Amino acid sequence: MLSTLSKTISLDFARMASTVTIKYPGVPDIAAAVGERLDKVLKEAVPGFKNSCNGAAVCTKCMVSINTDHLSKLPPVTEDEADGLEDVDAEPNQRLTCQINVTNDMDGLEIIA
After folding, report:
1. What's the domain count of the chain?
2. In the UniProt record, does the keyword Iron-sulfur occur (predicted)?
3. Residue 92, domain member (yes or no)
4. Which of 14, 62, 63, 110 has the fewest CB atoms found within 10 Å of its own CB?
């Protein structure tokens, strides 16, 4: 039992500690922790990156364009995100980073603007 619990804790810790690489123009590759919100990752790594709604999907300042070949790396658009994107007539490859939690699938994600 203790062995099983120890393995579970080790696996959970490894999952929490994992990082993926995200590419953003003009900055070195970004190491992003799995589970962290993408806007927070970009705010720390990209000079001048902003958002002002603290993840409410209403200001759209955190909107980025994603390489269309990489859209499948992202989770589906939430209803809140869809509403925010619709308000600004966003292009199909644009997403609100405040609505995206980093996942292992996002390794190598290329943000183009």
Report:
1. 1
2. yes
3. yes
4. 14
Cα 64 to chain centroid, rounded: 10
Residue 82 lies in a domain: yes
Q: How far is CA 49 from CA 5, 10, 64, 70, 75, in A?
A: 41, 35, 10, 21, 22
Q: What is the CATH number of the domain that holds 29?
A: 3.10.20.30
pLDDT tens string 46-67: 999 988 888 888 899 999 999 9
Contacts of 29 (CB under 8 A, 6+ apart): 21, 22, 23
Give pTM, 2 decimals.
0.82
CB atoms inside a 10 Å sphere around CB 53: 15
Domain membership flag for residue 55:
yes
15: helix, strand or coil: helix
Q: Give domain status of residue 98, yes or no.
A: yes
3-state secondary structure at position 42: helix
Task: Considering only residues 9 and 63, tell me which one the structure prediction assigns the higher pLDDT.
Answer: 63
Alpha-carbon distance 87 to 92, whole Å?
Answer: 13
**Per-residue pLDDT reduced to its tens digit, 16-31:** 569 999 999 999 999 9
